[in-house]
Amino acid sequence: MYPFHYQKASSVAQASAALARSGESRLLSGGMTLIPSLKHRLIQVDELIDIKGIPGLSDIRMQGDQLWIGAGATHKQVAQHAQVRAFSAGLADLAGLIGDPQVRARGTLGGSVANNDPAADYPAAVLGLAASIVTSHREIAADDFFKGMFATALAPDEVIQGLRFARPLKSAYAKFRHPATGYAMAGVFVAQTDAGAWRVAVTGATDGVCRWPEAEAAAGHSPADLRFVHDGVLDDIHAPAAYRTHLVSLLYAQAVTRLS
Ligand SMILES: Cc1cc2nc3c(=O)[nH]c(=O)nc-3n(C[C@H](O)[C@H](O)[C@H](O)COP(=O)(O)OP(=O)(O)OC[C@H]3O[C@@H](n4cnc5c(N)ncnc54)[C@H](O)[C@@H]3O)c2cc1C
Questions:
Q1: Ligand 1 pocket mutation, candidates 16, 112, 175, criterion most atoms within 8 A of CB
Q2: What mean pLDDT is predicted for residues 124-131?
């Protein structure tokens, strides 16, 4: 680990100002990705800005008919929250499938979404449910937020405060876990929006979460000839592209059977 300064922010505005002041700085949330990256000297920072203690940052509550989940909410909180489950069973199930109990106890929604690992689970729910990402600066629609492998629309001094979800009529998530890490070899989130439209988001299979238009057109059904066709299906030591493509179709069919 390289040496760095540590500070604790007491508000989102303070965290954002600290990011803007320092050249190489990072927010520390659950630390599940950031701390190993620092320990292995994969990244070097001048300043670490701890946001865990910011009041209200991990709140989960209804805002009218919408669900608000603060950026600091842990995966465990989301998985076990009765209001989340009643709102979207797919979202609660997904949070409960992340990593292992230790990771779920510390990892946060904001950290996962900001990191945008191509094999992370949350991006599939955020895109599938057409959530809004509310930051220190603005509100960003999920369709405009994810920009490919580890890339997002966030500016360097932008802090995610929380995410706002519109109530789906139905939702479900199906995932095939990497046996060593628990990350998604592939994961498919299916949702029917309040207006009746279908959204299907795929994670783990390509270089970043993406929607699957052909499955959306299938409107909650899984026709036998439905195939995941995408130019950038990952082909690596974990799985060949053909295997991942096949997984996506299977997981879509599985998610459809679980819709509630
Ligand atoms: C062994 C292991 C297994 C895992 N398995 C899975 C899995 O199966 N599925 C899965 O999806 N994930 C998995 N993860 C990832 C984990 O769930 C966390 O979501 C992820 O590490 C990031 O969340 P965090 O809160 O720990 O963020 P941190 O590590 O603290 O931060 C990650 C990045 O996000 C930035 N950041 C944090 N909070 C904010 C914010 N509010 N606004 C802007 N930027 C912010 C940080 O500056 C940093 O760059 C796994 C991790 C480990 C170590």
A1: 112
A2: 98
Question: For residue 15, what are the contacts with CB-CB under 8 A and spacing of at least 6?
Answer: 9, 27, 49, 51, 54, 136, 159
| Ligand 1 lined by 103 (C-beta under 6 Å) | yes
pTM for the model:
0.97
Instruction: Assign residue 28 the CATH number of its domain.
Output: 3.30.43.10
CA 226 – ligand 1 centroid, Å: 33
Q: Across the strands, what pairs with 190?
A: 172, 200
Domain contains 111:
no
**Any atom of ligand 1 within 6 Å of the Cβ of 115:** yes
**Rounded to the nearest whole angstrom, what is the distance from the C-alpha of residue 225 to the centroid of ligand 1?**
36
- Total domains, the chain: 2
Share of the chain above pLDDT 70, in %: 100
